[in-house]
Design brief:
By secondary structure, the protein is mostly helical. It is built from five helices and no strands.
Length: about 120
């Protein structure tokens, strides 16, 4: 029971952060455009990444698409980690790693609304 509560809290936190970052990318906020611009990703690319981030949040909340949503979220975070590594920005990598690990932990704990036998 405690594990399900912890997982629900972790999932809601991941959903909140994903929605916040996804919307910032999708709406083309200046900070996001500057960040991705240094990796030669234009406004449309940032908006596409934002769309997929928002989609991953929706998929993550639905029990049948839970794994796909977390996989998509983890893939997006891994992409950003790789961009930071290309620029030798270890601070940026260290900021992203906990969110990547969070997706993996949430997958391991499974969706809180699904009964585990």
């Amino acid at each position: 029971m405690i594990i399900k509560i912890i997982n629900t809290i972790l999932m809601l936190f991941a959903a909140y952060m994903g929605t916040k970052q996804g919307w910032a990318m999708f709406s083309g906020k200046t900070e996001m455009l500057e960040l991705f611009g240094k990796w030669s990703i234009g406004k449309q690319g940032v908006m596409a990444l934002g769309f997929f981030t928002l989609l991953s949040v929706v998929l993550m909340l639905i029990p049948k698409t839970f794994v796909w949503g977390n996989f998509l979220m983890a893939a997006g975070i891994l992409l950003i980690i790789c961009f930071h590594l290309l620029g030798r920005d270890l601070k940026g990598v260290m900021i992203e790693v906990p969110f990547f690990l969070l997706s993996l932990v949430i997958i391991y704990l499974q969706h809180p609304m699904v009964k585990v036998s």
